[in-house]
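User: Here's a protein and a ligand (manganese (II) ion). What would the complex look like?
Assistant: Let me lay out the input and then the predicted complex.
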Amino acid sequence: MIKANDPSLKSWIEVPENSDFPIQNIPFGIATVAGDTARVVSRIGDKVIDLKVLYDFGYLADLHFALEDFDTDVLNNMMLNGKSGTRNLRNRISELFEVSNNELRNNKNHLEQALIDIDAVEMLLPVRVGDYTDFYSSEQHAYNVGCMFRDPNNALLPNWKHIPVGYHGRASSIVVSGTPFHRPKGQQKPSEDESPVYGPCKLLDFELEMAFVTYQGKELGDTISTDEADDYIFGLTLFNDWSARDIQKWEYIPLGPFLAKNFASHTSPWIVTLDALTPFRVSGPVQDPKVLSYLEYSGDKHIDINLQVSIVPENGLEKEVSNSNYLHMYWNMNQQLAHHTVNGCNINAGDMMASGTISGPEEGMYGSMLEISWKGTKPVSMPDGTERKFIQDNDTVVMRGYSQKDGVRIGFGEVKAKLLPAK
Ligand code: MN
């Protein structure tokens, strides 16, 4: 077992009940405190741990890190130390804050500088995303979309159970939770016999997804196997892949999503390491037909992560619209990464790869308004008496996620964003 994952560990930092951030989590992020530069941070309970300060005071000596790894506005440098580097770092942080350790606890001056209240920091985008890939790996989601736009008897396209289908998205418009964004505008074709029109998107939707962030990969031409994939995955975030359904419907043939997807995507600020999530790994579905050998895998590679989505109208009460789980994936991350690199495509530290909309097998578990409202035919009633088929101006969408087992809850916090009217 990874030392920092021990369920019996307790911290001398107070951890509120049902916190996503016990000492077994130790996620990584980037924060600024008013008037100071960005730096690498971790978190226990509601205390943010300044790793630049810990490094300056010598608490992270002998771990082969340099000041530039922590005195920076992205995690990319730190991640170049690879899986063993970040695993040792996480173990060291765990050790420092474990209840019997007094190294830092008894040094009032160091402590005052190293620990910051969560309310006093601004969390920034954690990585410089070089490349963003979005998969389409939830069978229920692919089935639902196939039923709505094609034929329930042939809902899945012939390639779907042979290939973890994906596309290259846009990295520049990935922003951190809390960043407001505007309703996109673009071309739509309202009906078969009308000409296309230009205007604000009318069918603005969220997509409930998880994204994994990669370490530096291999050279161009090399591949990463399903067995090796764990060593190239740093951690995961909650990911909202906003989608303009009316723009998407008109533009996507034959090359796939374009302007319907690249106006904004939101990620949660804390990267929860794959190491921290290891205790929550579970088996996946039986894959029939049998996959090609490069997509075969051994061991439990899916992860049990409870996921919720809520809509909060301006000055209104929150309404939960989805309760899903990351384990409802057909293809797991190891298969996605193996497929992504099977042709020799290289990956870099900080690349983000999103799961695709995560829809569970029952109503109430669907990961987009397209499915929840079934193309607008089943509106959702809000506490204030209004209805939602899709997302309205000034609505805030919040996604939350956590894993729980053996009395330990490892969570992601939330990813939220407010939709502003079209510019
Ligand atoms: Mn998506």
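Summary: The two ends are 52 Å apart (CA to CA).
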